[in-house]
Write a structure and sequence with these properties.
The chain is an all-alpha fold. It contains 3 helices and no strands.
């Protein structure tokens, strides 16, 4: 499974970005840079990550830095899958 591709797909779907994530790389800033990524959208992204990757995210496992960049989200997912 291509974690980056799946994470970008989830971001695109939850944030209704219309395919714009195709231009994102691991250094693309998210939280604070994408107006659509508000607290409710973060919950939606977490829910989709849990469904797509088959893990559970506990409240104490995440903070703002998890959603700082595309790469930080990918690193979080890879850590959960390890």
């Amino acid at each position: 499974m291509d974690t980056k591709k799946e994470v970008l797909s989830i971001l695109d779907e939850v944030l209704s970005l219309g395919g714009n994530t195709a231009q994102f790389d691991v250094d693309t800033p998210l939280l604070g840079a994408l107006p659509d990524l508000d607290s409710m959208a973060v919950v939606g992204v977490i829910n989709m990550l849990e469904e797509r990757f088959g893990f559970i995210v506990e409240d104490d496992e995440i903070d703002g830095s998890t959603f700082e960049t595309v790469g930080s989200v990918i690193a979080f997912v890879n850590g959960k899958l390890a």
